[in-house]
Amino acid sequence: MKQSRHSNRIRYVLGEDEVQYSLEDGAGRRSLSVPYTQISCYRQSLPGRS
């Protein structure tokens, strides 16, 4: 999945054992990988900015 908003670019890659996340903005590019077993089953929502 790819998502773009203003100058931010977000990319998710759903693998077999982990999800890879990368964020690119004016400050640079950051990425991380998280195994599915480490993702909490608790839901959380964050308000978006307009």
Overall description:
It is a single chain. With 50 residues, this protein is an all-beta fold. 0% of the residues lie in helices and 54% in strands. The chain contains no helices and 4 strands. The chain has strands spanning 2-5, 8-14, 18-25, 28-35. A 4-stranded antiparallel β-sheet has the order 1-2-3-4, with no helix packed on it. A hairpin with a 2-residue loop joins strand 1 (2-5) and strand 2 (8-14). The radius of gyration is 13 Å and the shape is globular. The model has no long low-confidence stretch (mean pLDDT 86).
Shape: globular
Radius of gyration: 13 Å
Helix content: under 10%
Number of helices: 0
The fraction of residues in strands falls at over 45%
Q: What distance lies between the first and last C-alpha atoms, to the nearest angstrom?
A: 22 Å
Largest sheet: 4 strands, antiparallel
Strand segment tally: 4
Mean pLDDT: 86
Oligomer: single chain
Structure classification: mainly beta
The helix-strand sequence is: EEEE
Unreliable stretches covering 5 or more consecutive residues:
none
State the strand order across the main sheet: 1-2-3-4
